[in-house]
Design a protein that fits this description.
heterodimer; A: alpha/beta; ten-stranded mixed β-sheet; 22 strands; disordered C terminus; B: alpha/beta; four-stranded antiparallel β-sheet; globular
Chain lengths: 442, 252
Amino acid sequence: MSSVLDREIPLSAIEPEHIDGEPERVRHIRSQAAERFNALGWPTTRLEEWKYTSLAALASNDWKFDRKLPNDRTGTSPFGEKAAAELMFVNGMLYANRASLANEHPGIRIVPMREAMDSELFAQHFARYADYEKHAMTALNTALWQDGAYIEIAPGTVVEGFIHICSISGPVKEHPVMTQLRNLIVAGRGSQITVVETFFGAGPYFTNAVTEIVAGEGAVVDHYKYENESLDAFHIGTVQIHQERSSNVTSRTIALGGGLVRNEINAALAGEGASLSMEGIFVLSGRQHVDNHTVIDHVAPHCDSVELFKGVLDENARGIFDGRIIVEPDAVKTNSRQTNKNLLLSETAVIDSKPSLEIHNDDVKCNHGSTIGQLDEEALFYLRSRGIGAEEARNLLVYAFASEIVERMKVPVVRETAAGALFLRMPGRMAEKLGRTEEVIN
Amino acid sequence: MLDIKDLHAGIDGKEILKGLTLHVGTGEVHAIMGPNGSGKSTLANVLAGRPKYEVISGTVTYQGKDLLTLPTEERSREGVFLAMQYPVEIPGVNNIYFLKAALNAVRKHRGEEELDAMEFLQLAREKMKLVELDEAFMSRGVNEGFSGGEKKRNEIFQMAVLDPKLAILDETDSGLDIDALRIVAQGVNALRSEKHSVLVITHYQRLLRYLVPDFVHVLADGRIVKSGGKELAEELEQKGYEWIEEEVAAAR
């Protein structure tokens, strides 16, 4: 283990970072992934899928692994003790494990990835969905990952509450470090589970995380990705979802932080009658650059997908929504809707919205669309005409735009944290007042 | 209460009010009637400070203050309320939250203590009964999915909660059935006192049966061309606006 600490990893040509005692299959995959990364190289804007986002600043840096705590920071969970189980990682290495209580249930297994590599389902699913052959950043993670969360839920098991995977990053002694977190979630047939991933940190660092989610037949999986990285950080994250027959997955992405962020959320509806709800909200200001890239692949017949991404962009922020829905030849009776809505708060903020459909059979119901708008002057006037100040009125309307997604979040602490963070991002600090609304509504 | 002198105003470079003069005393209810395009809504919007409306000349004094220099929210906090002709829908902004924020902004301005959630709810419930609005509406977005009549009743409900000194009703009666009309009138009548003034802007006389004005003015081509008591409204209803327009034309 110590072999990887405090060592520079030149990312121009990488070597697989094997973990002591890893099974042959994992060793093999790592080596292959390293080869693929070296062959593919860093993605450049010449690639259609990366045309809006340059990684030049990221690729030119030297990054280190280190599992020491970042300067002057302690690892505290944003959700206190509210999670049913929690694995906390600092710079991609295990820092705290609060899963023992949940693991007393015979159907639940929540362990660090390092401890899961021998299990049968790990062997069956690991690296099977996130494609390191084609995607350089997935290859990079697959070759270098050191730890992450492995969650295995037995058939028919309903997990109460939510499981929290917490990633904290930050430089150690001024050295920029990288987090190569790797998670695998396997929800067995008819099981039910809610997983919340959070990413935050301080100072400059580079997170490249990959999460694979397998929703077995009839499984219900709610997944949240709450990204609030440091404004000096690079964040590249891939969530790869595989859905079997009649499974029901909800994926919610909340992107608030990070200097340069790439959110890849991909799902394959591989079994008949599966349904997917994919939602995202990104709220950007300053010089933030957030690229949301989603692929929903309808492989099997009779599947439904509904996708909604909303962006709020202020100052000089740059946002991208590039969403693709693919309907394969066999995926008849597909029902799919894709929407991207954006709110621009300044003259200098930029959004590129690129929804797209790729349909290979004619027995489908699909639609997609995107909107880009400013704050509604009529609504602003209405609020002000009732005595609400201009700034507060503006904040209310921005929140209202985002609230459609925030208020659908089922985990109360995530919803409240997201709502609070949204208000903190606005001038006028409305968070306190929001707290009081809840009483009024109820 | 309100003193408008020789007001010229318009929108998009087009002059619509062409020298309007009107005095509304404290405790009085005035009705302003007029055909389409006479400037009724422009007057309401200029008084409330809607962006894009430009004042060319003239003065508006409200309780001794120059109303036209105050930003929209200040006018509201000072007690001017506009019940809008077309209330906007604001999905995502909770009705009750919105109104509580508004009331507390007004109360703070008046130097009164802000209401907490319980106190506010109590007040809101009481006023909801007055306009016969179902409580379920309150947890929805502002005007979201409301019917036309519900939107107008919501305006009157907001007015009742905010307790303005000067209420301006911009065609609140348009498109309302007789029940809704009665409810709107009921709300406004509840506000009537020697301290409150009301300016009812309308095309029709119907509302004025329930909401009997002290004064009626006829607005034509951006000016008040005729003023009188409540009987003027009835005359207009019977004869239409043509005779007024003819009178105005003849006087030129």
